[in-house]
Amino acid sequence: MDYVSIRVSTLRGDQKIDFNAYIKINEKMVLYLRRGDSFEGDRLKRLVDKKLRKMYILSAEELNYRGYLQRNIEGAYDDNSKNDLKTRAEIIQGSQQSNVEEVFENPENVEAYNYAKDSAGKYVNFITTNAQAVSNILNIDNADKNIAHHGVTVSTLSVALAQKLGITDSKKMQLLTLGALLHDYGHQGSALNVNQPLDKMSASDKDMWQKHPVDGAHKVRDKKHFDTSVINIIAQHEETINGSGPQGLKEKDQDPLAMIVSSANALDRLITFENVAKNEAAKKLMLDHVGKHPLQHIQFLGEIIKGV
């Protein structure tokens, strides 16, 4: 029988599945969830706890899976949905994470990129029109320190920060979100363990970290479907306004959208990869990163994270 992989990050919500879902154990496909059941409760938690990224379905049932995804996502974005905001946020977060993973694995796929771009626009609307959306998204724990999950968190912080900065242009917000989602493409396939404080990295690890923004941008620069703003964000997301970033760019030489992502990324790096408590992260950002990011960015991010 032929199987195709599906992403665990897309399996959220209480909707019954109309396909059988399998896990691979020692090259053998084992039925995990039957058609007609749902991934509610512990069934999904067990998969996440095991850090399982992919499951499998029969290729003949792929259309059923696509329909399941579409219903889940459409329902999550519907403000009249019967689901509460927390459940909707979980579904949307999982969808955004899946989009990141798809582009990371297939950057040459125009359809995958455009789907992620279209979804980024919808995500902006969800974040900016639902008062508790940011809090619900940021409260989804990134237990396995997943880079794609980190991208969703940084995009959420970036949108919330841009909103406080008074940015309303829908195109800019869409590209900001997409760039933030994809900002760490340079880590794709890298041997670097990102789950460590920057000041504790070995010389070789620090060298890999220093290079990942430019490496990531270089890998997609020839892809004509990648927007210039998105490439700029990938290339510049570790830069600082005082020129102490990997490329030494000063504020005047940076893409303004990349500066927003840089500030948001610095905050979530502390939380996700350096295990700083959320209620302490903004204070640490202020103390350790003052002069590296616009003061207004740091102040606004403190307000955003305080509300989580």
From TrEMBL:
Q: List, alphabetically, the Pfam families matched.
A: HD
CDD domains tied to this protein: HDc
Which residue intervals define the domain HD-GYP in the entry?
125-308
State the source organism's domain of life.
Bacteria
- Give the matching SUPFAM superfamilies: HD-domain/PDEase-like (SSF109604)
Q: What is this protein called?
A: HD domain-containing protein
